[in-house]
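Aim 2 progress update. The chain analyzed this quarter is reproduced below.
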Amino acid sequence: MSVTEQLSGLRGRLEQTEETLRAILGGQKPYLDPNGPQGWLFEQLTRMHAGFFIPESAKSYVMLPGEGARERELKGDMRFHPLAYKLVLRQKSLEQRLHNEGIKNFKVLGVDYALRDTARNPTDQMTQAGALILSRGDLYSLWQFSAILKERFEGGRSDIPLILQNTAQGFWNPAIGGLGLGILSGETGKGFNVHFSDGPHDTLEILRSHGRNFSSDPQTEPALRIEPGATILVVTRNSKKVHELQSILDTQKANVRVLPFCNLFPKPMEAKETSRSYAGNNMEKVAKAWERLDEMGADAVEEILRNKKGMDPQKTYLWFDDRGLEFTEPFLDHPLFDECRSYLNPYKMMPGAEMAHVNKSMSLEDFYARIEMSLSDMETKRRAGGLPGAVDRTAYDRTNYIITSLMPGENGKRGVYSFTAATNDLLSEYPRPAQDIYKYSEHYQVPKNMPGGRTKAEISDYIETMSSMALAAKAAMFTLGMEDHAARAQARMRAKFHDAARSGRWKIGTQHSLRADTYGHGKASKGIINRLEGAYKFLEGNGGQYDPRIPRLHDIYDDKGNRVQIASSLNNFYRFASDANAFMLTSEERRDDREKFFAIRLFAFFSLVVGKQVFDPAIAGSPFIVLNRVQERSWDDCLSIYTHLHRNGFLGDKPHHIFKLCHAREDAEKALQKMMENYIPNNLPQSRFWEKGQKPPDDLFRVTVYCSATSTNNRLRQNARDFSFELARYGCSIRNGGGMDGLMYETSMGVHDFRRWWAEKHDGQPMPRNHVSSIQCEDTYQSEGLCDFNDYVCVHPNIFLRMDDLQTTDAEAFLPGGAGTVQELVASLLMREAGLIPANRPMIIVNAEIGHGRHRTRVYDPLVEAIPEHYFEKYDIHVVDDEKAALQLVREYQAASSKYVPPAPGWRSVFPAPFPPQ
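Predicted structure tokens:
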């Protein structure tokens, strides 16, 4: 074949490749046969994924032979293509090497964010740089290279050298072979000014020999630039992500302030995250945040930022985060993971973007223990089949960040910038360090490039410097100009803080502020009070203005905007939280006080924890310090309950991201001062109460069911669903928190299951009366959703009024749950103590068994142990092992009441769902 014919064939293949890549970049998933003429492209995608240049596996971007609509859906939304840290690193590495030789005027294809757009012509770069380099890269890199090279065959500019920089491992070998680029490796290529390089040294020699001056800087197109002193609002419901990002950016010397979005603006609705890809899930979050800001309007947003917070809206940016964990072996195919099976993507053998669902179904320790058992079973089966028994322990930790401007530009649109990074790790057989109370994924992962085999948890600055989050942040910093901040002076708010502190304007609330019968703040707390008086004012509870056991009138607004007054005791805590600028839980005076103030102490602790979790605007932005001095150890029971829930997957936040634990007064004082330096006063929205539907009939036995709003454990969810099914069968009125996820959702659906079952089995016969109510509040409505299809729904202005409403019941059942469920339980105890609800109303705690193997435990053990012994009889508290026993108790109390209804015949399911095998 002649050179002309070979070049003609190359041009045709380039045109086809450019068309295919444009379709992939548009998220169309074009058909591709790995064994066909374009099969090389599938291999190239595989290398890009393995090199961390694209976040999803090769098969996610194309349709393979035999695949249909179901596979297309499971592949995920592939319209969004983040810029990889590894690609940015290529540009940085070449800069470091070539700048020393006076060569600056070049671009690495795919790095310039303004040109990562198929609506742009990649050949525009010919006027912006003196040389273009295809280093190891991603889909945009290859698409730009193909388009530029094709344009040269069509007589376009060829005075700018186009260099394909391959590697010793032959990263671009599939493209070179599949396209037939070998024809350009000699003099023919030089005629088109196309050159092949084996690395930076060869690239340097090519540019040196070119006879051009490359000393000027390349042109870059206008893009988002994050200036020193800017504010980044992290749009998340996970406080851990806010703390981590601030720590990462501080370590990298970026002069920005990081705050939760929810500290300034109402929470956006929770994204469903059905995109099945990292960037797709993240873009769902972006859309919800933009929707919230657009609902408010630009004037309201500017008013909050500029006039109330002293921030420049044009220097305020939104930051979104999505993460996942991937394995090279199908560990999760094991029956041990059936508890979360329905949340996993069956098309992908790793949790990936669905990792968060796994974390909500079991504890992290239990998760890794099950991985080990799955791994062991895989090795046994392989050896039994005559295959090598070794199983690959490789794990990839991936992060996707998306950054957008807060305010729309002149064209009415906001810029979107997406970045990704991953780390290459090995799974550790045992957590290290093993003695840590709180364990995270980093205890079980060993970076492959880390000598000595230390886990991530054993590397002190791992999160800030080497994690996938840090690498993705570095890519964003380089692209958005934050890497230049280190050379500029850091701007902080210390002067503003000290002026306010000297005037005594900041107010501190303690647990003593909540007690009408405790004057001052207790003798044991005097030391810290004396140290801080003058700089701060401590809220006094004299008269019971904040006591959650004393009903007081509170102003709220209805859905028509009318102000109405409502009597509430628990809402006194919201008044307390609104008045305080910081919270410091201090010591009790005597050991006797632990029992005397048991309920109010736990209520204070867990109300603040929940406020931080749901980003309650009265609590989220205020410092929260727990002073647990070794002399008194007043908060041991709360800390024990928190630790237990956290270790077992019911409370995801690391403790130090919710509160600062101190053991000495001096440490508490220092912590408060440091935390107050970046404090911004609360911006409390005027939330309204609204309702729809029919309230439950008075003659039905009412059962309030409290439980987790987030758990993805299928066994626990099925038990909750069966429990409410049976309550409906027995003619009960069920009240729940109304969320659209977790066990809470199942307690609504169980009622509707019963109604469908009755209609199918009883052919028009009258159904036993039943009812289901959903009682929500504004702060949790945004994250949990609302089962607005239930018989009655309402949304209260805050979580304390919601709890007040949930107390109007004949029996309470506490299924497995987290900090919110504990808060609701101790709120009930408070109201029983105060005589606001009957003390003999049954409180049924389902202390269900969870976990597996050595991690098998019960949900509420530390809580049950902490409850004073005489409370069980005095306040009619029952602790049972499962929902079946809870149901039996409900039936007994219903039968003893005037609201007994004969049960409908039939038994729907095995109840409760079986526990997974050892």
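The first strand starts at residue 83 and ends at 84. The two ends are 67 Å apart (CA to CA). These observations will guide the mutagenesis experiments scheduled for the next reporting period.
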